[in-house]
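Please check the following for our workbook:

***
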Amino acid sequence: MRSSLPIVTMLIMTLYVNDPARLGESRLPDGRLLGWAEWGPKDGVPVLLCPGAATSRWLGFGAGVVEALGVRLVSVDRPGLGVSTPAPGRTFSDFAADIRQLCVLRGLGRPAVVANSQGAPFALACAAEGIASALAVVSGADEVAAPEFAPALAEDLRGLVERTVYDPAGAEEFFAGFSADAMWGMVMAGSPACDLAVYQDPDFATAYRRALDEGFVQGGAGYARDTVLAMGRWPFALDEIAVPVDIWYGEKDTSHSPDQGALLATRIPGARHRVAPGIGGALLWTHAESILTSLLAKAAADQ
């Protein structure tokens, strides 16, 4: 009997994701649809997820953890991704307005928010507009167009950033040529071994590929718009964000931020900068309990 316990523990620990408990679409006042997925109890504490680059509502996190913590996790397809209606030329402010409407339609109140990877600036826009009660930025895409980062960027990335800033229309056309296969290949090629252990786990890989496939089901325009917004200068004032914020990065994450979020944390009043050892960009899935526990405590204190 004692020998079976480590096996059970190992199986629980490697269940990084599970299928949504609920899927749906909400119609906004202008007629557009926003697709969403939910995990955890219907009456749980609402936590909104802004997912990473090109991934649809299908890829959640915290399998088993959201249920244990009583979290109602809600992931949303940004316009043009998954089943959400495209909105050409959309801005960060437009996205925040969409989320404000969704919170009313879905009874989310003023939810805590988790942002992963390219979802980070979209969540920060929601925090800047007072929609979030607390925010956890996890392996967040940083404001790489900020001038102070230019010397720290690899040459190829610096070239893309400059193109995005000076020719956003051309950059958007370029990014629209990406595909689910291209994104998968880019992530696999650029990830350290500790992250690949997560990404190549059979169950996780299936969920991740499904989320990418659905993210590009309408083509690459939704991803392209996201990327141009994320890689350009951010128009919202980080120093005016008045909700509690955790900034989480993995020690081995070399792709999301030139300094693993150190500067980003100083730009947001009271933000807590946390670097987890032994992991990279897969942090959201390996440290879900710590991320959510801290976020829920911050959200409760802000009520």
